[in-house]
Amino acid sequence: MEGLQFPSRFVEGPITPEPAVATSLHRPHGEFSTASVSLLSSAAGSAEIWPDTLRSTRLIWTHSTRTLLEHLLTFPGETWQQRWDASPLGRGEVDAQAVASRRTTGNSIIPGMRALYCLRAVRPTLLAFRRNPPPNYDVMFIAAQEDPVLDKFVEQVSVHHFRHVHRRNALNELCMLLANQDVTLSDVTPAALLHFAHENRKARCILQPGSRAANRLVGRGIWDVLHTMGHFPPSTPESMRAAMLRGQLRVDELVDRYEISNQAVRGLLIDYLIRRKADTDYSTLKDLACKLTYHFWKNIEQINPDQKDLRIAPEDYATWRQMITVKDDGKPRVDQDSIVVALRSFYYDLHTWAADEPERWATWVAPCPVPPSELRGLGRRRRRIDERSADRTRQRQPLLPLLVNHVETRYDRVRLLLERADKVAEGGVFTHEGTEYRRIHTESDRKLLRHGDAVPTRIQEVGSGQIIHIRTEEEGAFWDWAVVETLRHSGVRIEELCELTHLSIRQYQRANGEVIALLVIAPSKTDRERVIPMSAELFHVIASIVRRHTRTGRPIPLISRFDYHDKVRSAPMPFLFQRQNGPTAMVFSTATIQVMLGRICDQLAKTHREFRSLKFTPHDFRRIFATELVNSGLPIHIGAALMGHLDIQTTRGYVAVFDEDVIRHYQEFLHHRREARPEGEYRDTTDQEWGEFEEHFDRRKVELGSCGRPYGTPCQHEHACIRCPMLHINPKMLGRLEELEADLLARLQQAEGENWLGEVEGINLTLTFLRGKREETQRRARRPTVELGIPARRLHGAG
Question: 403: closest CA among 608, 669, 239?
């Protein structure tokens, strides 16, 4: 959009931004467009309009308005609006301080400007309003309008789940919109609010060039309140962000993005993609449209502008093949094969379809320009890709403990620092990890206190004087830790992580009373729902997220998530990975999580040179998770089921621990699959097999904790549990580890005295494993206990 200084995806949505149209001229106190200076300045200080204002204050307003009007008289025009538009002040080109007279300073004309806005004598531009924002504008404007719909909006804002600053912003921005578009609240539409948001962004970018904060959207709080009031039509998206994100494009729009010249070929591509749309998802369809329209035909038109059909000359194909070896930015293209395969499939699809529908497709049948030699070595090139992926995993796997330790240490430090700071009164000094801090309140914090709003926790480092917004620091550190821990303990895809909800947490209770925590992974890339058992570490992370959302006593907010691949919005759900962004709650996007991981790696690069040349992506955690599963002795088919890679039939061994509803879902799915298989290939689990399966979990319990070996596998380490990587130590058994260490040290001393070198080597190895497991268990034990609380009973009819 013209006027924006930064790339933005919020410039084109399903609603076209346009200003509101007034159904009637709203002038509750009379028409002042051509009023005299005396009449208009008297109205600016009228006790009838602002009865709760002191007389001395109203006299200042009258004087300020008179001064401003006398200044506007020096500019041409028949009305005050014309004079205002002709003045640099009205065009937003100068500050109010620059407008001075012999009787008053420039500062005093701002109350006059505010009075003219409230009385609708002039219609300010957003640039003029932003350059000289009048104080207490919303209070005075609302009092002067006598608009019952506006009064209802004020009441709704007061009860909405907003902080005080967001309430003030919502009121101030709405009053700014009404004055700028010269309408009442009844005339405000979603399109008018979007127009206001875009124009505001332009004005702020002019006043604050280069500032990303200026490029942010305003009016989100207004949208939330108006939507809650039912002011907008029922089909209106629930948030401004949703209204600004473009949904799925039509097939013709996908093709027309690349502006090809040959209209006949354009029609063919549209027909072809419509036919393919039935058997593919939107993301794949969009990618196919890009390959055929942009990478293929648009390049062919550049090579041969006279090309009329799909019969490509060999020399033109050779030129085209060379063109796609590099990207538009000059970098080598890695996915050349995918473009060539898509093109080859396009030609052969036309050949096949022409046999059934010659009247529609036969005209376009032509020899495929892709020679058979292009596909030679395709398997070898794909193996090279797999090798690069494996090498990437080998590089990052040894660095994962450093990354995990960094996010854990940072979160623990800021969490404990916040707890200490919250216990200290303003001005109090405390010491944390050898550094002195002072709890402080800024001037803005004191304003919040006067309005009874929550005050953010701020501390000042005594030595350096640096002010730290510790609650914001703790919020960022928590989500960094939660994202890393969830990815590495579950192996989920990034889309699956963002789609986790409160309803994803399930449990299975065995006959002996043991409860197994489960995590339901919604279908994503492979459209396969799966359920994975949660480890203690993963369950702690998920419980911590739930507790953070519900710590105020409210349930997890129900919000919609926008899928950037399929360009659709979900139904409102209690997503786990969501956080407050200004006045509204938003689900983490995949791009946000990638930026978070990149920022963590940049922080580590300052102290660990290994991170200077590499970054972790969400999929790296998935590859490492799969590698560690297999290296730990887990059967590959079970690991594949946990990862959601292979056929769903591989999940049969885990059905026994699933929640009853999930079992039914999978059994129905398997039933449909079985109908396509030979009769007798499948059979139901016998009572004996079911009993053996449950008995397996009992046999995994050992003195120090539990064994993590999978079902159907024996102990591979001859019960040398202290050395076994599958042993999960129970934190209650840390004392027993101390006893074992003391016994091993006594045995080591005797072995060294007797010169039993083999025994010494074995005991030292056992001590190494013991101390490593103890350190890992102590680390887990240091995590704060998560109290989810007991849900209160709801009364029928309660809101």
Answer: 608
